[in-house]
Design a protein that fits this description.
This protein is 51% helix and 16% strand. By secondary structure, the protein is of the alpha/beta class. Helix 9 links the parallel strand 7 and strand 8.
């Protein structure tokens, strides 16, 4: 059965990776894209997830549900608690945070876990979510210049900066690439971390949402 899946974006650089993941793992899904390019700068300016911002996330989820979505996937990792609230409000409609499936994969294997991020305001909430779910330490490293390069259209520099940062991290058994947009650097990061498990979010998220939507 063809199902409508709503993708809610806060940054344009997250869109190609998730579309590629759907093409690979769930090409039959009919994708509906909602993109508010003010969410990310407003979140950074606020410095915290405010009630007004949470209300905006809730409104986007309601809009997608009213449009007939069989599932909703948020592609920006800076709004975790607000997405959780929307999921509770619209249950049983499947609503996923971008990193849920990736976190589950990392937490299941344990060991030393690291995370490479490019958007600093997202890190605190992601670390809290991971710690609450798995009670495991998480070593995070933020590389803001990589996000700046990607927004300027320099994907090669984005990937190179993440790879360079990965080489400076303490030894990890697993390294997660924090955002959908960072998944494009998977190959570059793997090249400098031989023997380390490198996880990305989009593929895992698409598979998890498909399982939930088909129930």
């Amino acid at each position: 059965m063809t199902r409508r899946i709503a993708l809610i974006h806060a940054v344009d650089v997250a869109i190609p990776p998730v579309h590629a993941a759907f093409a690979a793992s769930w090409p039959e899904a009919r994708l509906m894209n909602l993109f508010d390019d003010s969410l990310s700068p407003d979140r950074a300016a606020d410095g915290t997830l405010t009630p007004r911002m949470s209300a905006r996330i809730m409104a986007l989820a309601h809009y997608a549900a009213e449009a007939g979505a069989a599932g909703i996937l948020f592609t920006c990792s800076a709004f975790g608690p607000a997405i959780e609230a929307a999921a509770r409000a619209l249950r049983p409609l499947p609503i996923l945070k971008p990193n849920e499936a990736m976190f589950a994969a990392a937490g299941a294997t344990g060991g030393a876990i690291g995370m490479l991020a490019t958007f600093g305001p997202a890190c605190a909430s992601m670390e809290a979510e991971f710690a609450e779910a798995f009670a495991l330490p998480l070593k995070s490293l933020v590389v803001p210049d990589a996000m700046a390069a990607l927004r300027q259209g320099d994907g090669a520099r984005h990937d190179r900066l993440l790879a360079e940062a990965a080489g400076t991290m303490p030894r990890c058994d697993t390294v997660m690439l924090a955002h959908f947009s960072t998944s494009r650097a998977e190959g570059a990061v793997r090249a400098v971390l031989p023997g380390v498990r490198v996880l990305t979010a989009p593929g895992a998220a698409v598979l998890a949402l498909r399982l939930q939507a088909d129930r």
